Amino acid sequence: MKQISWVAVALLTLAMAGCSKPTIDASSDESMKASAQKVRESLPEAKRADFDEAIRILAFSQIDLAAIMAGGASSASIEAKMKGVLDGKTAEEVIAQAAQVKAERQAREREQALAEIQELEKKRVDAEKSREELKKFAVLRSRFYFQEQRFMGKQPIIEITVKNGTNSPVSRAYFNGIIASPNRSVPWLKDDFNYSIKGGLEPGEEASWSLAPNMFSDWGKVEAPADAVFTVTVERLDGPDGETLFSTRGFDEDDTKRLAELKSKYGVK
Predict the structure, then answer these.
(1) pLDDT, tens digit (0-9, with 9 covering 90-100), for 57-67
(2) Cα–Cα distances in angstroms (integers) from residue 88 to residues 24, 48, 76, 93, in the given order
(3) Rg (CA), the chain
């Protein structure tokens, strides 16, 4: 077997050196700018946009927003981290590492989204259970009207009769009232009100209340025709110690929309 001469070895070494791919030199701003441009130009035109995006991903992956907000990260330290993650890398290495960073970020986002979905689902189930319990606190009668005051003008009045069909004493009840006319899709008024029950309302007890909302609130400004109907829905009940017994307000329209968006985005049924 013939030995390879030192001349052949030298030529092979030079050839391999000539084929080595350019890398980013982050030793200074000038060298980094020039070398990054050279690395970029070494790529086919179709892959240069991928390289640009990869540079941005790797650079921003070094930014710690929590540290910045806490005042523990200077612009110099952030810049040093950005340079460090790019220094000595070829175009392919930059693109590959950026893909890994992106995949890890997406995995974290999915994990957080699944946890949020689970939390929202629990809130939805709890709200549905509360809605069934709240039906037991029945509104037997509801009426809204204005009462003439001698000097103060018209005072809005809410009259309701309720019966506590739950198994718990109730210290405060929260309601949503709607004043609407038949065959009209938009109500004249939709607003919340609540009442602190003196002595509470024990299971099985019935009570009638006459409430006087602030005449300068929306209740005092509503102008509804004679055919308008006043309906009241129970939204929340508090127990003897002021703790929430049942509430539908733990899962609102925004929660419903958010849950649907997350399920659609992450393919959760």
Answers:
(1) 988 888 776 66
(2) 5, 18, 20, 9
(3) 35
